[in-house]
Amino acid sequence: MKKIAIIGTVGIPASYGGFETLVENLTRYNSSGVEYNVFCSSFHYKSHQKKHNGARLIYIPLKANGWQSIAYDIISLAYSIFLKPDVILILGVSGCSFLPFFKLLTRAKFITNIDGLEWRRDKWNSKVKRFLKFSEKIAVQYSDVVITDNEAISEYVFNEYNKDSRVIAYGGDHAWLNTEDVFTTRNYKSDYYLSVCRIEPENNVELILKTFSKLKYKIKFIGNWNGSEFGKKLRLHYSNYPNIEMIDPIYDLQQLFHLRNNCIGYIHGHSAGGTNPSLVEAMHFSKPIFAYDCKFNRYTTENEACYFSNESDLAEKIIMHCELSLGVSGTKMKEIANQKYTWRRIAEMYEDCY
Predict the structure, then answer these.
(1) Which terminal Cβ of the chain has fewer Cβ within 10 Å, N or C?
(2) What pLDDT shows up at residue 178?
(3) Which pLDDT score, from 0 to 100, does residue 158 have?
(4) What does the alpha-carbon distance between residue 169 and residue 303 come to, in Å, rounded to a whole number?
């Protein structure tokens, strides 16, 4: 049996976050030949259970995000050495600057998912960007296996570092609930578009809101509006439009299920970060998807979605869809999701790397 240590997440059980959901499902669909040990932040959990989905949980008394994240990852790495694992799976690059040192202390295979080119994100200042770029370089150079979640990032890694990577995306089928799993009902009228994201400039939030402020069609927009001055400013301005409903984050899968299942189309504005979990989740609902035109989204949807690059472009696509029933069919999105974005398949691909 192979012993795997997983580093770089808040932990499991997962309540939010792409990496946390990944670990939740890696442990859920693990084979009998794999033993998972997952490092968790003790600050995030009120009760510190010892096991979840058969995985051993190890708690570190630091926060997994923010300025403590680097120390959190480094301490987790140091602790993992004493577990004598066969594989150390690192999610994200923030703690990878010390990877050369830790490689001297263990024979474990190091596998790193470098995430979505975090150093390029607009939210970081220049010093943080330089540090994350350096950590990414070290992670790629010293990892035995590099995992990227999108073909575009795989191309970047090869061109930038001359190193091949394994492309493994995310599952989204956990968002689609079977009838027997749905205990609550929501009477949502199917007359709205839906968007779900972190409220950040790179997700083209303002572009989407501006577009719908000039249209008669409804949109329900879910995000952390109160998490930044940017979000608060947008909420103050656009909440006055009767066709725009700005909803705070929802972590209840059943409520999200109803919102996704009843919408007439999904708007995806992400422009960075590789394969986005909220997009692959939406693809499982057989709804038309209108995605911002970038390489990441085109690879994820295999060029089968409807793409926009500015306000007038999105407005034209929405009008054509509503008035003329033209545009993209959601059936193709579901087919792609079933082929590529199921957690059982993703878990098997990770185990192939071990």
Answers:
(1) N
(2) 76
(3) 97
(4) 16
Which residue reads 């709804």 in tokens?
287
**Preceding peptide of 13 cis, ω within 30°:** yes
- Sign of the Cα pseudo-torsion (254, 41, 279, 352, in order): negative
Task: Dig out the tokens for 53 from the structure.
Answer: 């989905």
Mean pLDDT by runs of 10 across the 354 residues of the chain is 96 89 96 93 92 97 86 95 97 92 96 82 78 92 97 96 97 85 64 95 97 97 96 97 97 91 96 92 96 97 96 96 74 96 98 96
The H or E element containing residue 194 is: strand 192-196
Residue at token pair 């960007």: 129
**Quick one: pLDDT at residue 69?**
86
CA 139 to chain centre: 20
- Name the strands in the sheet holding 109-113, side by side, starting at the edge strand that comes first in the sequence: 51-52, 55-60, 34-41, 2-7, 87-91, 109-113, 145-148, 166-167
CA pair distance 283, 131, nearest whole angstrom:
34
Residue 2 β-bridge partners: 34
Return the SS3 of 147: strand
Cβ atoms of 27 and 53 within 8 Å: the answer is yes
Distance CA 297, CA 305 (A): 9
| Strands, sheet with 192-196, edge to edge from the N-terminal-most edge strand | 244-247, 218-222, 192-196, 265-268, 289-292, 306-308
Q: What is the pLDDT at residue 120?
A: 67
What domains can you pick out in the chain, each with its CATH number?
A: 1-167 (3.40.50.2000), 171-338 (3.40.50.2000)
**Residue of 77, 85, 73 whose CA lies nearest to 37:** 85
Report residue 224 as tokens.
């952390």
